[in-house]
Amino acid sequence: MKLFTGLIFCSLVLGASGLLSFLGEAARGTWDMIRAYHDMREANYIGADKYFHARGNYDAAQRGPGGAWAAKVISDGRENFQRFTDRGAEDSRADQAANEWGRSGKDPNHFRPAGLPDKY
């Protein structure tokens, strides 16, 4: 419902062409988030979690307002889900800080752990 309401609001504010642009940015931003998650799982590197959170949000936000919106929705949903399933609120807050860092355009390498392969 939140997603639908957000899309309706955006369509009213942005108009039809703006909506298409927003949706394209959101789709590409979603892909950026998926790619960061996949890379995090593949790297399986201790201490790299915050880096991949920041990187996914940074890459998505660079797509434009739609990408930043998608990153926020995905990050908030994931953290809210995990907070109640397998982790505590403290770790979730730290992840959200890394998410916000990346979405704000700050360099995600701030969270990059030493020794993480250059591939990432």
From TrEMBL:
Gene3D superfamilies: Serum amyloid A protein. Residues 84-94 have a biased composition (Basic and acidic residues). One of its GO terms (cellular component) is high-density lipoprotein particle. GO terms for biological process: acute-phase response. Keywords: Acute phase, HDL, Signal. Coiled coil: none annotated. InterPro entries: Serum_amyloid_A (IPR000096), Synovial_Prolif_Regulator (IPR052464). Residues 84-120 are annotated as: Disordered. It comes from the Eukaryota. Residues 1-18 form the signal peptide. Major acute phase reactant. Apolipoprotein of the HDL complex. Belongs to the SAA family. This is Serum amyloid A protein. It comes from Equus caballus (Horse). The gene is LOC102150143.
